[in-house]
Specification:
8-stranded mixed β-sheet; 11 helices; 33% helix; globular
Length: 328
């Protein structure tokens, strides 16, 4: 791990106050949401379509937050950036020895008409199909694709906007691999994720509902790995078609390891509790932290704190400062 990143991770660890016992049975409503997503995935797998995860990663930008040093915070350079190039970044984590992931595509955003996407990677792996998906006609192995886009750091608002569009199906994107496989990504993906700085901390408002009005009613899993995403999102985003797989309730590094842990747990048939634990376990493994110290940073309807209201404006300002956001 790079020295600056080790320091950042230590700060995040000291700030994360977790409680491994903070578990609860999801409500009947939240369970129905999950079942809808589960049914969509099972049907697509039975039709021999892969499980696709779309990930938006605004690169760490030193003019917006403290990233550790100039290289880690160079939002124009994925090759040195904290969220992309380091051991807990996407290249480092998915490319680690024995990860089980194979890189299927390397391109820039020009391939999808996005000048602010500086790197586009697709990783692929297979896992054994859960029994309930096999019962619905799925094959013995699930093929999982993770489509990750590294956005220019100063284009974080575009990254957040595209994440929201994909969550509601207001934007779709086809990715063609070298072997001729075409992936239904963007808003066609089964799971849509954001991994980076929580830009919602810096904005007075964000109009999720206006974007939702342009979307469709297919079920998608929601992942948001950034500081304190649940208090900013849970009152407006989760519902029958935006299924909250993982959000956060503490300060933490935007970790590819946490993303992978959540995705793998879901692909193996995990429920809310398993996906939450997968994210926490990935985060712990990626940063060499005790699981008991970081578990409580991750939240979904299997967390007894899930119904806790969002923060007041004053607490929002304090949280933004603690997470490294620059003063206006």
């Amino acid at each position: 791990m790079l020295p600056a990143m080790r320091t950042w991770a230590l700060v995040a660890l000291l700030l994360v106050a977790s409680s491994v016992g903070a578990r609860a049975a999801p409500s009947a409503e939240a369970t129905a949401w999950f079942d809808g997503l589960d049914a969509r995935v099972a049907a697509d797998l039975a039709a021999r379509r892969p499980l696709v995860v779309q990930v938006h990663v605004p690169l760490c930008e030193g003019t917006i937050i403290a990233c550790g040093n100039a290289k880690l915070g160079d939002g124009d350079n994925p090759r040195t950036n904290l969220y992309w190039a380091t051991t807990e970044g996407f290249l480092g984590w998915f490319g680690r020895k024995g990860s089980g992931w194979k890189s299927a595509l390397v391109a820039t955003g020009d391939a999808i008409g996005e000048a602010d996407v500086l790197d586009l990677r697709v990783w692929r792996r297979e896992v054994a199909t859960p029994a309930r998906w096999r019962a619905a006609g799925a094959p013995k192995r699930v093929t999982v694709y993770v489509v990750a886009q590294a956005w220019r750091g100063t284009a974080i608002d575009r990254a957040l906007g595209r994440y929201a569009e994909d969550l509601y199906g207001a934007h779709t994107q086809a990715i063609t691999l070298a072997d001729g496989t075409t992936l239904a990504a963007g808003g066609d993906a089964h799971v849509v994720a954001y991994v980076g700085h929580n830009r919602l901390m810096d904005l007075a408002t964000f109009d999720w509902r206006a974007i939702a009005a342009r979307g469709d009613e297919r079920s998608r899993g929601v992942i948001a790995i950034a500081c304190h995403t649940a208090p900013y999102m849970q009152a407006v985003v989760p519902g029958p078609h935006q299924v909250p797989l993982v959000m956060t309730r503490d300060f933490l590094l935007a970790s590819a390891a946490a993303l992978e842990g959540a995705v793998t747990a879901f692909a193996k048939g995990g429920d809310y509790a398993a996906v939450r634990r997968g994210a926490a376990t990935g985060y712990a493994d990626g940063g060499d932290k005790p699981l008991t110290r970081v578990f409580g940073a991750f939240s979904n309807p299997a967390d007894k704190r899930w119904g806790t209201p969002g923060y007041s404006a004053a607490v929002n300002d304090h949280a933004a400062a603690q997470c490294g956001a620059a003063a206006p």
